[in-house]
Design brief:
Blueprint (H helix, E strand, L loop, with lengths): L4 H21 L4 H14 L7 H20 L6 H31 L2 H12 L4 H10 L5 H30 L10 H35 L10 H18 L4 H12 L5 H26 L10 H25 L4 H10 L5 H12 L5 H29 L5
Length: 395
Amino acid sequence: MDHNLLLQLALILFASKLLSALFRRMGQPPVIGMLLLGVVLGQLCLVHDGEVIRWIARIGVLFLLFEAGLETDLKRIREEARRAALPALGGVVLPFGGGFLLSWLQNGQLFHSLVIGIIMTATSVSVSVMTLMDLGKMKGAEGRCIVNAAILDDILGILLLSFVFGLAAGHGAPGEATVHGAAGLIGQLLPLLKIVGFFVAIVLLGRYFFIPLFHNLSRLNLEASAPALAVVAIFFFGWLAEYAEIAAITGAYFAGLFIGQTGYRHTVQREIASAGRLLFIDVFFVHIGLMIDLKHMHSGVAYLAAFIAIALVTKFVGSMAGARLSGFDTLRSLRVGIGMMPRGEVALIVAGMAMQRQLIGPADYSATIMAVIVSAFITPILLKISYTRLQRKTF
């Protein structure tokens, strides 16, 4: 372990608290201060993007999405899932088409273009969730729609990615072994079966184990252990999601969704929020800023600018149009479109997997990192404007 790790963590926490307070005083989302802090600390080499910091950041985003799940009403999930379907679909189709076209015009390679399109479809709502919580709008219809649509986006993206990897293997793409016949078909269907199995498992575990367990904590003399058991649910559901090759944040969200239906919701929310904001969540947002390395960007300026512009504009337009078709008015559709713009860990995971298979190169991975950083900076500012300056009314 890096002998300077404790000093680096102390610096992150101290500076992030100061900058969060400063940005609140300036009327700006505190998350912007933490992102800027990460960029500055990384460029000055005061903090290194090491394994321990990455793990703390990973736990932070799990806690953040768990909180979002706690604030979601399970009784309304069916209606809201249907309402989130079109924003999710628009947030997949348009970015996929834009990314595919960008890559195809640049090099004309089919599998490279397909993967770039899939990278564009990924959505990370961690930045949006943090901003909505700061604004007190997480429980609004727009906030719930953003989270649900992002989960659907990730599932669609993983299915597309698995399909493309299967096609690439079948056509002997670089770095892939060719698989034919029934084994190849099963290999392509396996990701879908895992996803279906994941949702079946979490519904059964949530309804018939975790909810009954929390309802009976007093009988088991475990009332004081409710927050610890909630952490167990976060980690276990997160592991299930990763096993199904879905982002762990999806599992954490559903853990919060189920525990939020019990009488310990407020106790758990208070304790998890305190633990998360004490260390983990701040480190997560600082870590996003740490990922950027301006000295080693492989992308050309024109390609980089086009990549970022297409990533942001297509996601915004596609999700906003889907929300409008779902029945949201123009302003609320605008908020949904903005909230769906951020990229994060899912996009980086997809890009990393594709680069390992030699389907994309370092330039594309660098462009993905920059899209993550830029979207993380832009989204909180635009979300706040949409709530405070355009119109204050929401529902």
